[in-house]
Fold:
Amino acid sequence: MKSFNNKVAAITGAGSGMGEALAKSLASRGCHLALADINESAVEETANICQNYGVDVTTYIVDTSDKDAVYAFADDAVRDHRQVNLVFNNAGVSLTDNVEHMNYEDFNWLMDINFWGVVYGSKAFLPHMQKVEEAHIVNTSSIFGTIAVPSQSAYNASKFAVRGFTYALRMELENSHINVSCVQPGGVKTNIVRDSRYVTQDNTAPTKEEYATTFETMANLTSEQAAEKILRGVMKNKAQILVGRDALFIAILERLAPVLYQKIISRTFQDGQ
Structure:
């Protein structure tokens, strides 16, 4: 897709972070928007900003863990805009806990949003996208879908799953007009950690506030910078869109030293505790 002008993009998680930044950047390029988020006031605020670019913007309150809600979003977006060319399955959450103590409620909460939300969004919009001339599905994984990190087992599982699902979907659609990309951000300054579920059994471990502050300090990119990299990747029809120098470094490290990287990360986390 060489231009976003007069296209229609559906974005989940559009109320904040990369979803909000993607919406603004697409609006500035003349792309009409169907914006979804579970937070009504946040997605309305995003919409108000995007409307200043003179594009058509509609909003929807959607819990992406709810299959029926996601399918309704797809139908409503096509009804309101007559077509959808781009889908950004971007909504996501995080959970910090170790496998031994993690409860199934937290694990399922994360998987329902991070993985099943992507599956629902891809499948719900796919029949509609088969009816347009140009279409692109963009699913957000993470660099944590390439490497594993202690205390992030649930998040790792969800993002590895998104990565595998998305690459398989791309291959299935390679002879069609529908392109598919997998986004793998490194550290991006968003609220995902502050909005996460954070559980620790260690009294000496950082508090959630300390953990979030450390993450935001280490994050290399703003959401706006990440959005620009994602859209450039979409325009080039990249299968894998690595966002940030840290994401590129980690992807190379895992490929060249798949055993060594585990030792480095394990030692790093042990030293930090």
Summary: The chain has one domain: 8-272. The mean pLDDT is 89. The chain has nine helices and eleven strands.
